[in-house]
Design goal:
alpha/beta, 5-stranded parallel sheet, homodimer
Chain lengths: 208, 208
């Protein structure tokens, strides 16, 4: 049985780090930004644009102003997020067929539900998320706490909205996942061995 | 550092079984019905009455009809759930002082928050909860699916209401817990080794 672990996460909760470290611990590939790169490459899109389809608002996902007199025909512009979605599904299916893996984001838990993935959700308190974002801020970026909170909420709202394209199960609601982990005040690496054991138990390797 | 693990759970999710098995795996005591027995004994209450204070509606927690002409003085009747709550707090504090343990229910995660417990919430789909209840039904009990669903919802509503006596963090909301486990379609015993490892990671024994 292919062991697919999907990670959904609140922005700043350390979910991406958890995914990478978990994949290392399990000795399987972790697909994260690779998905965006492949969608972009195969469709001739800019990577930032592909990322925007899930992280920014739906409106911002349209690369050309709809209604502009000299813009691409509207139908073609409207079509682009759909092309991204189709490409994403195909790429995720290919990853799943290749074998065990960890996939971060991109609604993989829903798209690959026939593979019965272990669906993990990673979350944290707003204080913890702000602190993590501040620690990891690129040099020169100096957002206030209020600005960071606004950005976190915006990205999470968009992830939630992106998910609605695929399913009516709610983003972030525990019912949509198998395991939800609160990382507030925790170093991600200290949690990884336990999550790796959970994967083994879940897929039966260590079943009693 | 004392390792206290609190288990809150949806009715029929297998949370109680998980608590008992986890305590066995860790070699620590599990406090569950013992709490009710002790509260009852120390206060001269009936055990069913003490259980009702959390599992049944607040109204049902009053053992005597308020306003009945020959009943106990109202003030004394009103006072009884408070006596249960006070006794519960003292008993939980005593357990925590004794050392590592697993505590099922009774708002232990909130009451003992100064001990920084690992707060686990166990949940499952309604289908899975109904199936578990049917499997474990006492002989002769033959509730319809609809009746079982109603009972499950009622008990969960009362647990949620009971929690409000102690805290404004919400019962069942992932933000109120450190780890939420979906047991739908799972045998509880297969999950226990991983949860035991999680306890070790959480409290630092296996930290890298």
């Amino acid at each position: 049985m292919t062991r697919i672990i999907t990670i959904n996460r609140e922005f700043g909760s350390g979910g991406r780090e958890l995914g990478k470290r978990l994949a290392d611990a399990l000795g399987v590939p972790c697909y994260d930004h690779e998905i965006i790169e492949m969608i972009a490459k195969e469709n001739g899109f800019d990577e930032r644009y592909v990322a925007n389809v899930s992280e920014k608002s739906i409106e911002a996902a349209y690369p050309l102003t709809i209604g502009h007199r000299f813009a691409m025909p509207t139908i073609q512009v409207m079509d682009q997020p759909i092309r991204v979605a189709v490409a994403q599904r195909q790429i995720l299916e290919n990853f799943a067929r290749k074998g065990d893996c960890v996939i971060v984001g991109r609604c993989a838990d829903v798209i690959l539900k026939e593979y019965h993935p272990l669906r993990i959700f990673v979350y944290a308190s707003m204080d913890a998320k702000v602190a993590r974002c501040q620690e990891r801020a690129p040099e020169g970026e100096d957002l206030s706490r209020k600005e960071l909170e606004r950005r976190i909420r915006q990205i999470e709202r968009n992830r939630s909205q992106f998910r609605e394209m695929y399913t009516d199960t709610k983003w972030g609601a525990k019912e949509s996942y198998d395991l939800c982990i609160n990382t507030s005040g925790r170093e991600i690496k200290t949690l990884v061995p336990a999550v790796a054991d959970f994967v083994d138990c879940w897929f039966g390797k260590e079943a009693e």
